[in-house]
Each structure stands twice: as C-alpha cells, then as structure tokens.
Design brief:
By secondary structure, this protein is of the alpha+beta class. It has one domain: Conserved hypothetical protein from pyrococcus furiosus pfu- 392566-001, ParB domain. It contains two helices and four strands. Strands 1-4-2-3 form a four-stranded mixed sheet, covered by helices on one side.
Length: about 90
C-alpha cells in the first residue's frame, strides 16, 4: 500500500489578526450563525484547527475565525497546507 502524503499534518498556533480571509469565499455567515459558532466554541472549546495556506490565507473555517473575533480569542490552532495552488 502506498503511503499517502498529507498537505497539512502539523498543528501550530497563529494570531487571528495574522490570518487572511479568502476574498472570494462563497460562504457567508450571518450574525446569528457566528453567534451559534461562538456558543459552540464556548461550550466545547476549539476542536478542529483552521486550515490555512503558507501565507496565512484561510482555506477553511472563516466562520470560526469570525466567532473567535466575537469571543476575543487572539490565537487559534491552524494546520498549514503546503503544495496547493490557487488555480
């Protein structure tokens, strides 16, 4: 069986302010959704890292970053995906 190469296999912490939202993100989050995500983070903690590219561009989890801002969280766990292109 061939070994699978994972583009994001290490978790690190980054400041929320250093993360860059993807400008063409198709998903939008209402204030109510962000509040629900924030409530989940308050109750359960941060359970899954945010997926970012090498420059800190958010690939997935824009809603949780909005919730982190709402909660005053300054650092979040991220996984950096390498080898992906914007094409």
């Amino acid at each position: 069986m061939a070994e699978v190469e994972w583009p994001a296999d290490k978790v690190e912490r980054r400041s929320v302010e250093s993360l860059i939202p993807y400008p063409r993100n198709a998903r939008t989050h209402s204030d109510q959704q962000v509040s629900q995500i924030a409530a989940s983070i308050r109750e359960w903690g941060w359970t899954v890292p945010v997926l970012v590219d090498g420059e800190g561009g958010i690939i997935a989890d824009h809603g949780r970053i909005l919730a982190a801002n709402k909660l005053g969280i300054s650092e979040v766990p991220v996984m950096v995906a390498t080898g992906w292109s914007g094409a």
